[in-house]
Design a protein that fits this description.
The chain is of the alpha/beta class and about 325 residues long. It contains nine helices and 16 strands. The strands form three sheets. Strands 3, 4, 5, 6, 7, 15 and 16 form a seven-stranded mixed sheet that branches. Helix 3 packs across helix 4. The longest helix is centred in the middle third of the chain and has 13 residues. InterPro entries: ADH-like_N (IPR013154), ER (IPR020843), GroES-like_sf (IPR011032), NAD(P)-bd_dom_sf (IPR036291). Keywords: NADP, Oxidoreductase. It comes from Streptococcus gallolyticus.
């Protein structure tokens, strides 16, 4: 089969498209024919050698959509079944989805029922699952005023699409470091932008709900912009700070603020199916920003690392690829 093998850490040139043996099914694992997958920044970090648990050579890829090719659980995962796989150690402890086929532990394979096309499905897994979990935990209502801290991120843009599909009247603001992508951000559903100047929001506005994607680096400033009884959901760490320091919960949350999170490792078939049903019923505008095929994986990584990147970058099986780039 065709696969992308990384033999050493480095820039996108280490992503080598080559022929390798198709994985052999083993007890408790099934073989998936990959129809598409998203490119994630964590895979770029791994490619750069920044994932200490990962050894090379390795086939990257932490998510995929596809169909069961060979199974060891025919009742739950029959041959031909549409599936999504996210989380687990795919692409880290064992070879991942940058290939035509991937061998996965059965507990990491989630059968789905959907009429969504493969390009849409490939756009969804990690990004939309996180955004949907945060959307639910923020308990959005029609009278909310919402801020997405880190609004230009993939999860941020997915979140605003999920929200606006059900509550088009809700005002949603994106915090950004620069207004360079204003038109793109407004086009996905944001009502306006707020400049984030080194962790300080340049506004006096208050919000009822805040999706915090920058994380511990800005969470105190976000809380300062919450109305009483507001909710902040912190489920990103774009600020590259992993822990809250000097945080007195009684004083920081004294205005009856609710602090929550969503961890995408909290995953189940039921939760994934709930998300897909919501996307179909609410006609959420899920679409990839840029589509590549496996032969152009280096270009896909280069695009995601560039200043031009916006939205979700995916790789599709050539037969399904409607927009090779």
């Amino acid at each position: 089969m065709k696969a992308v093998v990384v033999s050493k850490a480095g820039d996108s040139s280490v992503l080598e498209v080559t022929q390798v043996a198709k994985p052999q099914v083993k007890s408790g694992w099934s073989l998936v024919k990959i129809m598409g997958f998203g490119i994630n920044r964590s895979e770029i970090f791994t490619r750069q050698g920044l994932s200490p648990s990962v050894t090379f050579p390795r086939i990257l890829g932490i998510e995929c959509v596809g169909v069961i090719e060979e199974t060891t659980d025919p009742s739950r995962l029959p041959v031909g079944q549409k599936i999504i796989s996210i989380m687990g150690e795919m692409g880290r402890d064992f070879d991942g989805s940058y290939a035509e086929y991937v061998l996965l532990p059965n507990e990491q394979i989630y059968p789905i029922s959907t009429q969504l096309d493969w390009a849409t499905l490939a756009t969804i897994p990690e990004t939309y699952y996180t955004a949907f979990g945060a959307y639910k935990n923020l308990k959005i209502g029609s009278d909310d005023v919402v801020l997405v801290r880190g609004g230009a991120s993939g999860v941020g843009t997915a979140f605003v699409k999920l929200l606006k599909a059900k509550f088009p009247e809700v005002k949603v603001y994106a915090s950004v470091r620069t207004a360079a992508k204003k038109e793109q951000l407004l086009s996905v559903g944001y009502d306006d932008l707020i400049i984030d100047d080194n962790g300080i929001l340049k506004t006096d506005l208050k919000f009822t709900k805040i999706l915090e994607l920058v994380g511990p680096a800005t969470i105190k400033n976000s809380i300062a912009h919450l109305e009483e009884n507001g909710i902040v959901c912190s489920c990103g760490q774009l600020g590259k700070k992993w822990y809250l320091e000097d945080f007195d919960p009684i004083m920081e949350l004294q205005n009856n603020i609710y602090l929550t999170t969503f961890y995408s490792g909290n995953v189940s078939q039921e939760k994934i199916q709930e998300m897909l049903t919501y996307i179909e019923q609410e006609q959420v505008d899920v679409r990839p920003e840029c589509v590549f095929d496996l032969d152009n994986i280096q270009a896909a990584h280069d695009y995601l690392e560039s200043d031009a990147a916006f939205g979700k970058v995916i790789v599709l099986d050539k037969e399904e690829n409607f927009s090779d780039k």
